Amino acid sequence: MASPAPGMNRFYLLLGAVALAGIAWLVYQIGKPSGVSIPVNVTVLAADTAGFRGYLAGSPDAPVEVSEFADFQCPACENFETIQFPAVQQQLISSGQVRWRYRDFPLEMHPHARVASHAAACANEQNKFWEMKQVIYGRQTEWSPVRNAASKFSDYAKEVGLDVGQYDECMKSAKFAGRIQASVDEGKKLGVTGTPTFLIGGQLYPWTSALGSDSIRVLVRALLPKPTQ
Amino acid sequence: MGIAMLSLAGLFIAIYMYLYKIGKIGSLICGTGGCETVQLSPQARFLGVEVALLGVVGYAAMLLLALLALQPRFGGRAWPSRLLAILAGGAVLFTAYLTYLELFVIHAICRWCVASAVIILVIFGLSLADLRRSASPA
Q1: A85 CB contacts (<8 Å, ≥6 apart)?
Q2: Who contacts A191 (Cβ-Cβ below 8 Å, separation ≥6)?
Q3: Taking the model in full, what pTM does it have?
């Protein structure tokens, strides 16, 4: 068998070197740590919560309080947010019957849930929590499977009109990690084990497919003060 | 040789895009930020297949053909060059369609896609020159 010409040998060597460099670069890209990480199980300080007990929607004077313990990466929470919550908002929150508290309850099985909670907390700092929450849930299938969901949240921050510089600083600082943990601890103390779970009139209602806006309306109506004759 | 080297570069770009698309790479190195917008758009799929995956297959095929054409046993044959020119021509048309989508539908530019477009144009040019050379009498 004839051996390749010396020029061809040099070419194959060069091609091999480029291939090796390319593979090494791809391996580095795959192994590169993702941008932001929010610590889990941090010690909660009093200053972390400073009276904060979840994101409130509706009138603070509404007669019934509903707390929703939810995880941004949980598909059932996404389902509730996109299908049921608009009706809840229209029928119960806007009508002044309910004050709705959204509480973070990121589950350990969801790797991006805590980062998502923190992204929403950073949006809240610029008074855009509800807008950010809607976008994060609405695009759950987009960010949930990727490795670095934080970069997606940064895009969403831009989309909802946040000051991205301030948002990025907030994310890097992880300053709401304690507050998120406090919400998880409180949920656990109440008996929350899965998401979404609703606390209505002191009673916990874990998610079932039957628990929609209609059943929440029935539960709320039973708690509304009876009109005096 | 140039075609093989460029196909290899294009192959790495396509693999990089595909790894991002399947969630193996966290974020793309992209100055404009448009890469992720483009990759996450509905237009990043063509007939149900990831465009990045089509790129991987296309560049791998071109690399293979370019290496085949360099083998002495195919020295006198025109078919590898012809096939390469047809493949590169198809890829140029597809790239033009994708560039149109970036500019007028997605309204975002992905630098990696631009790099791939330049590579495929040069490959097409080289493959035409190669074809002419192999067709002309020695």
Answers
A1: A213
A2: A204
A3: 0.60
